[in-house]
Design goal:
single chain, alpha/beta, Rossmann fold, 13 helices, 11 strands, 16% strand, globular, binds nicotinamide-adenine-dinucleotide, nucleotide-binding, Glu/Leu/Phe/Val/Trp_DH_dimer
């Protein structure tokens, strides 16, 4: 490859733009594995992040996803008070057609070679069974089934944290955190979304749901008495809360223009397409944004408990902190007249900077 090829320079430029530490490209012709592991920051501990399997249209899209998601993990661990850094894996492919035992085990071998710098878990397109396959090759994996000593699927804890983030935001906007009678639109009713729908319906919120998977849409609508809506109708809907629980970047200048929501609070990572511009647009429009990496940390907490041996009780306690943490971010954003996103970033960055100081004394 020529020394100044565009691929060579643009990737390194992208790495330094947000301070990423390392990128690993995984290619295994025998199993068909094509994956990228991005390690953003390891100041607080080993980089932990899920592995997403998705049919990316281009390798560039996969790379961008890995870079954005791994950075989000650094902030998520920092603001949640966990001793973990940020990383993320993406496997290029259709999880329903291309996923095999050997593909996941081959991916596990790449993780093994990182000697603990990266630890993974499930994400969109991967599940506890896949983590079990990775565990056959390396111990640097969490979210393995409870039957083999793991903490199991982290999604219920993620949903619990999102639910508390929604309640804390509703309290700010409506003066009470009761959800009865409030309307919530949940976009994506997979692993996390379905659990969230269950929690919301239990409190008698009116729940509208959308998913590109029609079978799942019908199933969840029937089971929880939620109202299905067409995917492209979401942004014109008059509802109290929009809970994005599918892909990222759904909050952008085009969608914000159409939004009538009072609150955005969901599990999807990187909901804002442009962190700075979009959080400012939301602030101007008076839409309260509960930072995604703050309220979707329940799953990460569950993985952390699995690593440290804390157990479920501690996972529940730490997840419950998300309510107060959300209230604190909103308070800081109001007192400093900054977006909630910037407020959350400040808290996370301060913890990383503080821990850096004590690390220099070891
Ligand atoms: N699983 C966790 O514990 C966890 C933790 C933190 C963050 N997250 C984030 O939450 C989101 C959901 O994760 P998950 O584990 O539930 O994934 P999942 O794959 O189980 O569910 C995602 C659902 O979204 C649907 N979907 C995809 N594109 C859509 C679209 N354009 N419109 C409507 N629906 C669409 C899919 O059909 C699927 O049902 C992801 O962004 C993930 O990164 C998950």
């Amino acid at each position: 490859m020529p020394a100044n090829s565009s691929l060579d320079t643009s990737i390194l430029e992208q790495l330094s733009a947000y301070g990423h530490k390392k990128l690993v490209f995984c290619n295994d012709a025998d199993t068909g594995l094509k994956a990228i592991i991005a390690i953003h920051d390891t100041t607080l501990g080993p980089a932990l992040g899920g592995t997403r399997m998705w049919s990316y249209a281009t390798e560039g899209e996969a790379l961008e996803d890995a870079l954005r998601l791994s950075r989000g993990m650094t902030y998520k661990s920092a603001i949640t008070g966990l001793n973990l850094g940020g990383g993320k894996g993406v496997i290029i492919g259709d999880s329903r057609k291309d996923k095999t035992e050997t593909l996941m085990r081959s991916y596990g071998r790449f993780i093994k070679n990182l000697n603990g710098e990266f630890i993974t878990a499930e994400e969109m397109g991967t599940n506890t069974r896949d983590m079990e396959y990775i565990r056959m090759e390396t111990s640097y994996v969490t979210g393995v089934p409870e039957s083999i000593g793991g903490a199991g699927n982290p999604a219920p804890f993620t949903a619990q944290g999102v639910y508390l983030g929604i309640k804390a935001s509703v309290k700010e906007v409506f003066g009470t955190d009761m959800l009865a009678g409030r309307t919530v639109v949940v976009q994506g009713i997979g692993n996390v979304g379905e659990h969230l729908v269950a929690l919301l319906r239990k409190e008698n919120a009116e729940v509208l749901i959308s998913d590109i998977n029609q079978e799942q849409l019908t199933y969840v609508a029937r089971k929880y008495k939620a109202k299905p809506i067409e995917a492209d109708k979401i942004f014109g809907i008059d509802a109290d809360v929009y809970a994005p629980c599918a892909m990222g970047a759904t909050v952008n200048s085009k969608t914000i223009e159409r939004m009538k929501f009072a609150i955005i609070a969901g599990s999807a990572n990187n909901q804002l397409k442009d962190e700075v511009l979009d959080s400012e647009l939301l602030l101007q429009k008076g839409i309260l944004f509960a930072p995604d990496y703050l309220i979707n940390a329940g799953g990460l907490i569950s993985c952390y408990s699995e690593l440290t041996g804390f157990g479920k009780k501690r996972t529940v306690q730490l997840t419950e902190n998300i309510y107060d943490a959300t209230r604190n971010v909103i308070k800081l954003s109001k007192s400093e007249k900054i977006s909630t996103n910037i407020a959350a970033n400040r808290i996370a960055e301060k913890r990383i900077a503080d821990v850096k100081k004590i690390k220099s004394s070891y």
